[in-house]
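Why run this: before we spend reagent on co-expression, it is cheaper to look at a predicted model of the complex and decide which construct boundaries make sense. The entries below are exactly what would go into the expression plan.
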Amino acid sequence: MASIHPPRIDPGFGVYVHWPFCLSKCPYCDFNSHVRRNPIDEARYVEAFGVEIAHRAKLTPGRKAASVFFGGGTPSLMKPATVEAILEAIDKAWGIEKGAEITLEANPSSVEADRFRGYRAAGVNRVSLGVQALNDADLRALGRLHNRAEALAALKVATSTFERASFDLIYARPGQTVDQWRAELNEALSIAPEHLSLYQLTIEPDTMFERLEAAGKLKMPNADLQRDLWEATQDTMGKAGMPAYEISNHARPGAESRHNLIYWRYGEYVGVGPGAHGRVAGKSGRRAHATEKHPEMWLTCVETEGHGLVEDEALSIEEQGDEFLLMGLRLTEGIDPGRFQALTGKPLAASRVAELIADGLVEYTREGRLRVSAEGFPVLDAVVADLAA
Ligand SMILES: C[S@@+](CC[C@H](N)C(=O)[O-])C[C@H]1O[C@@H](n2cnc3c(N)ncnc32)[C@H](O)[C@@H]1O
Ligand code: SF4
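The model came back. Tokens follow.
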């Protein structure tokens, strides 16, 4: 297997592929994911992905993909032949770089060794597994279809099949204590992946968890406990040599997700499939792309109009500056103030930066980058809002 090249500071170009189906809807999730009773006609989707990819390549000529990311939904419900056909279409349209990172998100309830070998043969070299918790009671409370034993078995298959494996855990769950979380994190570290995504549970609008919380049936940890859990996370991961490189993502140096770095370093990416977003450079600046969200409507759009795009807008200079800050300040490496000026035509507001520095929320690195401090990360949204236009 060709090895994945480590990330470069130039973020490059990536392709995101959205597979919008899941076996059931998790009660906390507001991703564009749908449950279908009847089997999915994958051949029809393959055809539509091919059409959309070819259309998008015409809008973005001359690029080569440094990464491809199959996200969802649950992409591990796709047949390996579907993944292979989509990768072939991407390669034909733009070309895929040698050493490109090709990630597939997988759900432990749909991990089978044979299928994983099929993904690997198709070109996938990195898997990101949605484990969420390592104990059965919390997995049940999160509405997951898998248990601890299945998660551990899936991790074994993932780490033995792919060059790189990462997994997701959700913390700040109802009833979780700092000691329990530290123990769980240490167990996660003993499984020794190079990359872990650790998300604080968020109550999203229009989810089952939002309704349960409003009805008093779900009690989230209070702000102090959330802060303690955050600090325990940074402390445990830092000591283990896997500090955060992004607010929720931890990696051994060199094992960061190349694809996600494209988003955070404000690079160029195309999104194909239902409800996928993209940001590409056009003749008159950066453009925002989005596709039809509903899977069957997306299919009809592509089949009748030759593409699923429902949004293709030029971003104003202010919007580009805000997006650049919103994405880049999530990273521990921070942002290059010169790039902000190149994008927007003006420097960062010096007085606001000075105030944030005085409050200990941001700092300049020796190389002149501006980054959020350890004290600033728990209030990242407020810091970004302060600096944005
Ligand atoms: C699209 S899902 C990943 C893959 C797959 N669908 C799964 O759930 O196993 C991306 C990740 O976002 C995280 N996530 C989703 N909703 C969340 C929420 N409300 N709060 C915190 N993390 C969330 C979960 O860790 C999940 O694995
Ligand atoms: S399996 Fe993943 S994408 Fe699907 S509903 Fe659950 S968290 Fe959302």
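The radius of gyration is 21 Å. The longest helix spans residues 42-59. Bring this page to Monday's planning discussion.
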